[in-house]
Amino acid sequence: MPGPAKPYDDPTVFLRDVMNNPEADVKLRIDFARNLLMYSNVLRSKLTKGQTTDEIAKSAATRGKYKPSAPPARVVDIRKGRKP
User: 15-22: long-range contacts (C-beta < 8 A, 24 or more apart)?
Assistant: First the structure.
């Protein structure tokens, strides 16, 4: 099977193209179909909760290990009531 003739911006399009390619190895086509199905099910389950893909990405970027760290604590000189 020759390599892809065009660049793919979306991995799902690539998976779908290989899955539908009759010249590709059957085991490879099945593996790609399985991966595409897993991705579709995860995305569909999140979209059925009423979230758009942008909201899903934003929520992933603000929670867990991708959560932005807290800003540094402000130091205030209590005796003078101002910052040092």
Answer: 15/39
